[in-house]
Design brief:
Elements lengths: L3 E5 L8 E5 L10 E4 L5 E3 L8 E3 L10 E7 L4 E6 L12 E5 L3 E5 L8 E6 L7 E6 L4 H5 L2
Antiparallel strand pairs: 1-7, 2-6, 3-4, 3-5, 5-6, 7-11, 8-9, 8-10, 10-11
């Protein structure tokens, strides 16, 4: 399991689109993507602000290969597994993602993390958590 839209706070669920990906991507549906340096989509880094959600499993992609994606919505709440225990992570904490498929510990460096923990549904590893993508960095979110 990776990221999926759990519910929309407002508006409609983003429509599926076909977008080009970078070469060499092997990823499951629900992986977070961003535009890479080549202009194609690549797997989202830990502290990057995701731009798209992959809608299909892909293996060893070629540069420019079209895949089905959904734009990330600031009005959506997403569900994803926790890759670490979330017992000490409070609701509202800025967290990072791991390989674009799960949620990790709280972001601690200024300028990293665009994912805000909306609600931990459990404290165990792989327990589902709810997150929102704010489009803000840690520094912006904290008012620094």
């Amino acid at each position: 399991m990776a990221f999926k839209i759990e519910y929309m706070r407002a508006g409609k669920t983003p429509a599926y689109e076909q977008r080009a990906v970078s070469a060499g991507i092997t990823a499951e549906a629900g992986t977070l993507l961003v535009f890479g340096s080549d202009g194609n989509l690549a797997v989202c880094g830990a502290s990057a602000d995701p731009q798209f959600l992959l809608n299909e499993d892909v293996a060893a992609t070629t540069a420019g290969q079209l895949v089905s994606v959904q734009p990330i919505s600031r009005e959506a709440v997403y569900s994803a597994p926790a890759s670490v225990s979330m017992a000490s992570v409070k609701t509202g904490s800025v967290v990072n993602t791991l390989n674009g498929v799960s949620v990790t510990a709280t972001a601690t460096t200024s300028g990293s993390g665009a994912t805000v923990l909306a609600y931990p549904e459990g404290t165990d590893i792989d327990a589902p958590v709810l997150v929102e993508f704010t489009g803000k960095t840690t520094a912006a979110a904290s008012g620094d």
